[in-house]
Design a protein that fits this description.
Low-confidence stretches: 122-133, 138-143
Number of helices: 7
Order of helices and strands: HHEHEHHHEHE
Helix content: 40-55%
Distance between the termini: 36 Å
Strand order of the largest sheet: 1-4-2-3
Structural class: alpha+beta
Number of strands: 4
Length: 143
């Protein structure tokens, strides 16, 4: 391990380790689209699917965040950095891409029963995140 790699990949290495431990037991893992985590997944040869909204859905998502009571900090992170974040996701050449329409949700594009079975039984393991922006790891037959 390089000297600065330990600092850069702190919690992310633990996260990828948890992903690898849970991959064989579950059809779907829902993880944050943290770019260091995605980089480590690519380095490990672990395929993933990026699921994110269309760029022009920014205002719809802003209203959605407000209506569901998200904090200003949460909204600032996602809406304030929207274009930069979408750019990075669109430019990811390793993962497959599912681009959600303005009124489309993860439940429209994945097998929700498999996801619910996982999260119900493993609440304290890999945490789920808001459905608006996610990286998904699937067994091929589950999509």
């Amino acid at each position: 391990m390089k000297k600065n790699e330990k600092f850069i990949f702190g919690w992310q290495k633990n996260y990828v380790k948890a992903i690898k431990q849970n991959m064989s037991n579950n059809k779907i893992l829902l993880i944050p689209s943290d770019f260091l985590v995605l980089s480590l997944l690519k380095k490990e040869g672990i395929p993933y699917i990026l699921c994110y909204p269309k760029r022009d859905a920014k205002e719809v998502y802003h209203k959605h965040f407000l209506n569901r009571g998200n904090s200003e900090n949460f909204i600032d992170i996602f809406i304030g950095g929207w274009d930069k974040f979408i750019d990075a996701l669109e430019n990811d050449c390793y993962g497959r891409h599912i681009v959600l329409e303005a009124q489309q949700f993860l439940s429209d594009v994945i097998n929700v029963d498999a996801l619910l079975a996982y999260t119900a039984n493993n609440v304290n393991e890999i945490k789920t995140i808001p459905a608006e922006v996610a990286a998904l790891i699937f067994e091929e037959q589950s999509i």
